[in-house]
Amino acid sequence: MLSGNLAEFPLLQLLETLMGAAREGALFIQHPQFSGCLYLQGGYPVHAEAGPLRGLEALELLTGLRSGPFRYEAGVQAQEQSIEPRLETQRLILHQFEAWREIELPENWGLVLQTQPASSQTQLSPLELRVLALAEGKSLAQALMNQQFTPLQTAQVLDKLLRLGLLEARKSWEIQSETLVVLSLYGGGQGVAVIDEGLFVHWQRLLGGPFWVRLRSKTQEAALRPEPRIQMQGRLGLFERDMRRLRLSRGMRVEAWPELI
Q1: Sign of the C-alpha dihedral computed for residues 34, 38, 39 and 45 taken in this order
Q2: Alpha carbon of 157 to those of 51, 104, 124, 160, 168: distances in Å?
Q3: 59 has which bridge partners?
Q4: What phi and psi values does residue 98 have, to the nearest 5 degrees?
Q5: CA 260 to chain centre
């Protein structure tokens, strides 16, 4: 098994070594913000994963990594094929690495993006306006994995917005997520997460302002408006519409944490 860190053994050099030797196996990368893997067959990439991304988009995100522990396990086969094993894929990988070299994002992809008032009138394209809107309050990693645009498209726009001062990358607060048990709420409401009053006050003090509650189950993720209620320790109330949308049922456990509005 081969292992190391991309900071000392860059991914391009690593892939050139594995692909040149016609290796078959899996390269696992543990970034602080997500897990990634790339499966090779006969030296060609056949499948890639990076957080929620699959295939070429996952590969595109991985080529932008400059650090992170990795390990290569020979003989591991992919359970699916999302990338065509051909010469054009090798050329595409080289193009992706070249494109990332022109992008100057902070190395810490855990930094949170916050919009800033424009100092002068700035004309933005529809793509830039959409990326600006979706990036607000997200970490760099979350923004790059938005699934509306490719990671490179997003990275190029974020690079420009940061240079223009329309976005600022700040340190995130070290707020641990809470594991809460889902309860069903009566009525036809939606978009609300009922949490314990003590937890609500605690999160509000930490963030210093209004916030959303972000929920994550095994398959879904969503941001809901918090509503405090007494005697809800360890529990989270959801209306039926949201439970159906998030594929949750009474008694299931979800991760929950606050995000600034």
Answers
A1: positive
A2: 21, 11, 10, 5, 13
A3: none
A4: -65, -40
A5: 17
The answer to whether 6 and 14 have CB atoms below 8 angstroms apart is yes
Classify 152 as helix, strand or coil: helix
3-state helix, strand, coil in the chain (%, to 5): 30, 30, 40
How deeply is 217 buried, as exposed, middle or buried, from its count of CB atoms within 10 A (0-12, 13-18, 19+)?
middle
pLDDT at 172: 62
Task: Compare 69 and 187 and report the one with higher pLDDT.
Answer: 69
pLDDT at 122: 79
Q: Can you give the pTM of this predicted structure?
A: 0.66
Write down the pLDDT at residue 153. Answer: 96
Average pLDDT over residues 141-166: 94
Place of tokens 């979350």: 142
Q: Nearest to residue 45, comparing CAs of 75, 23, 69? A: 23
Per-residue DSSP letters for 40-84? EETTEEEEEEETTEETHHHHHHHTT----EEEEEET---SS--S-
Q: How confident is the model at residue 58 (pLDDT cuts 50, 70, 90)?
A: very high
